[in-house]
Write a structure and sequence with these properties.
The chain has 77 residues and is mostly beta strands. The protein contains no helices and four strands. A hairpin with a 2-residue loop joins strand 2 and strand 3. The protein starts with a strand and ends with a strand. The mean pLDDT is 96.
């Protein structure tokens, strides 16, 4: 499981033109990931959800929608 804070560009295109200004919004992301290591390589799959933490959260098109991510890594030790 993971959780953390991040940023997102807020503008008319991600709010269906509900806001006219542009700014960087604070997002709280959370989810679960599975990672497997093979020799010096790692690969993983993650699924998560993001929540905008300001007054425009009701119009942000990604509010609470799931996302899927891939993780790749290389162990240099």
């Amino acid at each position: 499981m993971f959780t953390g804070f991040g940023g997102t560009a807020m503008n008319p295109s991600v709010t269906n033109n509900q806001i006219l200004s542009e700014y960087d919004g604070l997002v709280w992301g959370k989810g679960i990931a599975g990672i497997i290591g093979i020799n010096n390589f790692t690969i993983g799959l993650a699924i998560g959800f993001d929540n905008l933490l300001d007054k425009n959260k009701q119009v942000w098109i990604y509010q609470g929608k799931p996302w899927l991510g891939l993780a790749f890594g290389l162990n240099l030790n």
